[in-house]
Structure formats: structure tokens, C-alpha cells
Request: fold
Amino acid sequence: MEKRQQLYRGKAKSVFATDDPSLLVMLFRNDTSAFDGKKMEQLERKGMVNNKFNAFIMDKLAQTGIPTHFVRLLNDEESLVRSLAMLPVECVVRNRAAGSLSRRFGIPEGQELNPPTFEFFLKSDELGDPMINESHMATFGWATPEQIEQMKELALRVNAALKDLFAAADLVLVDYKLEFGLIDGELVLGDEFSPDGCRVWDRNTGEKLDKDRFRQGLGNVVESYEALGRRLGVQF
Ligand code: C5P
Reply:
């Protein structure tokens, strides 16, 4: 497998073509951004930690029958993935109130959400990723009603698998963001699952072990990501 030209450079990851049109290389960079790119920093070792964290979670999800784009780790900061036609939406599942849900509805941080909430946001940096509903998605063609149902079903299956995994390590999976894409019409989990895109708290101390450490200037960002990974069984 030969790595070729860069196809896309996001805020924290880059994607490269390979000599096989069905496969891509995903590079996890040390760049860390928050508040729609208004806060940006390089955090040493973050690329490696997130790459290995993501590989571990994607493997776990595949073991429970969830289709993902992940193929294998290539090196410390790169993974091989299947090429997807990404849907322009982000799916957020929440087991506890935090972040934009707390701000939007005035729900205290930490309140249990039963059943978990499920939300769609439009992927658009210019618009600040606005929240959207199923009617918007149908009217503007961002996803078909069938794809919407499949995203919900897969996101809730991810939740069932990961909630238990995290709980077994005395961790609370507060919320997370997923992105999906299509291969030959099949809906597949894409992008990444890392502490950059989820919230996780220590069940006993409430300590935040995710990107809120960066957003809120709490320090020890990568150290916390790594400690979180080790508790789940990730080998760095
Ligand atoms: O900001 P908000 O509370 O809506 O975020 C919910 C979850 O989705 C958080 O875990 C956050 O890290 C993640 N998220 C993300 N990328 C975005 C928006 C949210 O990874 N563009």
C-alpha cells in the first residue's frame, strides 16, 4: 500500500489517498482546536494517543457487529481506513447533560439523561455546526429518512457497547459525536472515536478526562487522554 497525495486537511486530522482508490490513510495530528478553531494548540503526543485510542474503540465496535471504516493501524499516528462518501451531519448521543445541551436547555451538568438524547448537527464550520432536525435533512438532502433511521440505530448500538466498556473501568461516558458515510449504499461509521470527540468522567471523582480539559484550560490534556485509554485497555 502506497501513500499518495493529501485529499483533505481538517483541524486535527489529515486524509491521504493510496494506490488503492477504496482505501485512505488517516493521519492524527497533534493540532488541537476548540470553539470552531478559535483556540488552537499543538499538544505533543496527542496524534499518537488518539490514533491508538481510536483503533481500540473501532475494533471493539467491529466486534459487536457495527460496520466501521477502520482497517488497521499503520504506525503511531496513521491508520488505514475505507473510503466513504461522508454524510454532512454529526450525530451526538448523550447519557449525561453537559456542554451545549446544558447551555441550550438550562439542564445542570451531570444530570442523567434517560433515555439518552440523540441529536443531529450540520457539519459546517462557517455556520458553527448548527443543530438540525429530520425535516431539514430530508428537505436539503443531507440524509434520507432510511439513513436517518440507520444512524440512530447504529448510534444507540454504539452507546450500548461503549457504556458498558467505560463503566467497567469506573468511567462515565457522558456524550460523544459520531459521523457516518456510505460504501456502495451501506451506512458505515467513519471519522474517529477519541477523547477529542467525547466526554468521559471518572465515576468516583468526576474528573474530566476528555477535550473539556483543553476547552476549559484544565491542563494535562494528553496525559488524561492516555490515562483514560490505559484504563480501558489501550496499549500505547
Ligand atoms: O458541544 P456539545 O456539548 O454539543 O458536544 C457534544 C459532544 O460532541 C462532545 O463530546 C464534543 O466533544 C463532541 N463534538 C465533537 N465535534 C463537534 C461538536 C461536538 O466532537 N464539532
Q: What stands out?
A: The longest strand covers residues 112-122. Residues 3-82 form a domain with the Phosphorylase Kinase; domain 1 fold (CATH 3.30.200.20).
